[in-house]
Each structure stands twice: as structure tokens, then as C-alpha cells.
Design brief:
Number of strands: 0
Number of helices: 5
Helix content: 55-70%
Distance between the termini: 35 Å
Radius of gyration: 18 Å
Length: 129
């Protein structure tokens, strides 16, 4: 009677997660904005939404760490150089983790980061999904 209709474009199972879209979400700094847009509009597959939550968690963690270390370096003269070096390690780590996750997407492997995925799914997922 109703027939077999294909899923609508807004149905979460109708999207096939292309690696290009997932890579876009994980580009350092820039990928934050399409990730936030995708989560805000609640569109995309479960894989896309999980990647968006991970991207936002990484970016927000980096920004907060960067701001705290830069503020500490500006206000504490005796440890300024050490805090700036830690800041550069934090920034390098953010970029390397993002590139590593992009590499895993290209190889079609799991993109789970212990602890960070849990935080992204439970806390960020609660407010943005």
C-alpha cells in the first residue's frame, strides 16, 4: 500500500559519510566551523556527528589551553619562556593529532581517542546533538 520509498535526504541513514566530508571536519582550526554547523543543524550520519563532536572537543581544548598558557606567560615573567614553550607543544600536538586522525580517515580505520571520545560523546553530545 505505501510502497518502498527511499529514505528522505534528512534521514540520518541516507547520508554516506564520504572521507572528504570527514577530513573537512578535522582540518585544524578551520574544521571547527563546519563541525559546529553540522551539529547545530543535526544533519549527517552518526559517523559524521561523532567526528564533528571530536573536532569541536579538540579545538575547544586547544583554544582553552592556548589562552591559559598565553595568559600565564604574559603575567608571570619568571616562567614566561617555559609557558610559551608549553604553548607551542600544545599547538603542535593539536595539529599532529588532527593530521593523524585525517590519516586514519584516509586509511578507513577507527578514529577513537581514549578519554577524549568519551568526553566528546557524553558532554559535547549532550549540548550539541
Amino acid at each position: 500500500m505505501f510502497g518502498n520509498f527511499p529514505p528522505s535526504p534528512t534521514h540520518p541513514l541516507s547520508h554516506s559519510s564520504s572521507p572528504i566530508e570527514l577530513i573537512l571536519y578535522l582540518i585544524p582550526i578551520i574544521g571547527f566551523f563546519p563541525s559546529l554547523w553540522t551539529l547545530y543543524h543535526r544533519q549527517g550520519s552518526q559517523e559524521q556527528l561523532a567526528t564533528c563532536r571530536l573536532s569541536i572537543t579538540l579545538a575547544v581544548s586547544w583554544v582553552l589551553g592556548y589562552l591559559f598558557l598565553a595568559t600565564g606567560a604574559a603575567s608571570l615573567d619568571f616562567v614566561a619562556v617555559r609557558l610559551l614553550i608549553l604553548n607551542s607543544f600544545l599547538t603542535s600536538g593539536y595539529f599532529l593529532v588532527s593530521l593523524w586522525l585525517i590519516f586514519l580517515i584516509v586509511r578507513r580505520k577507527s578514529r577513537r581517542l581514549p578519554g577524549l571520545n568519551y568526553f566528546a560523546e557524553k558532554v559535547i553530545g549532550k549540548y550539541l546533538s
